[in-house]
């Protein structure tokens, strides 16, 4: 009677193993980021290292498994064969299986050191204009502060192609890790220890960035985009970002940007900043470096608000650390009865804790407030 139980367990294990293996496959499918499809020299160097190790490992695997299978078949026990010759140590064999693996490991070591030197801080080149950006890791979203321009944005790191980007990595909470698979490998973002990472994006495109160090319940929803564009497009973006927010004019519409602005002033200003509304940054009063003003134990300082700066919200393509994609078309009509179906921003404003449990946004807004806010935020290009 024991056999069926055993068989059932075995079948269960088989199903579990296949499910686990297929989940790896699906995980690979849903993520467009790849370390093999490189868009810059740092990722290129890392991909080269990956191939070296894969080739070495394949040679070892095929060699060892072939010898194993050959031995199993060639020297298998047959009826009436005498016991094989008994060996006690073989100097030649032992030398062989010590020296050959050492050579393989040595080759990998040489390439590893070469790779480490290529991507090290000392190897940071100056190609084109160098841009200094401070990436501030929050729980759980990324803020990007352009050091030389005193502007900050969230979820999108916009860069020109072919220029060196020097990223200062800052956290005042827990350890995070900055990773853009197509452009650069991971660098930890450690409180009290300012790491940095440089990269160059060779090809225009939008590349997904991921937090690669477990940092709390919403670690998986701490994504960002690196938007690499031509230098002209980048300069236009940069000068737009330096403007104060669009100021809506009076409107008789049921829902309007003007009404949305007052909803913002009543319900959002303790956590979010909009330059020209509740923040007065300008050329003569530039936005301060978050590394200097957000160094305390809380983010509550007036220059260091807990939520993303929304001055140019409408120019971004992610919402709330990438938990939702921002589709402005779906939000174009704030009076639409389908607003909560088509507009991710409205979904977010309606139920931030349902969409991203544990995040800092806990606000309850009426549907009218939400429609007005959608009308307002979508004008902030
Ligand atoms: Cu931040 Cu994981």
What features would you describe in this structure?
- The protein is of the alpha+beta class and 381 residues long.
- Helices cover 38% and strands 17% of the residues.
- The protein contains ten helices and twelve strands.
- The chain has helices spanning 2-30, 41-74, 91-119, 231-241, 257-267, 290-293, 339-342, 344-350, 352-355, 367-377, and strands at residues 131-138, 141-146, 151-154, 156-160, 164-170, 176-180, 184-189, 196-200, 205-211, 223-229, 318-319, 324-325.
- Strands 3-2-1-5-8 form a five-stranded mixed beta sheet, with no helix packed on it.
- A hairpin with a 3-residue loop joins strand 6 and strand 7 (184-189).
- Helix 2 (41-74) packs antiparallel against helix 3 and helix 8 crosses helix 10 (367-377).
- The longest helix is centred in the first third of the chain and has 34 residues, at 41-74.
- The model has no long low-confidence stretch (mean pLDDT 89).
- Bound molecules: dinuclear copper ion.
- The site of dinuclear copper ion has 9 residues, from loops.
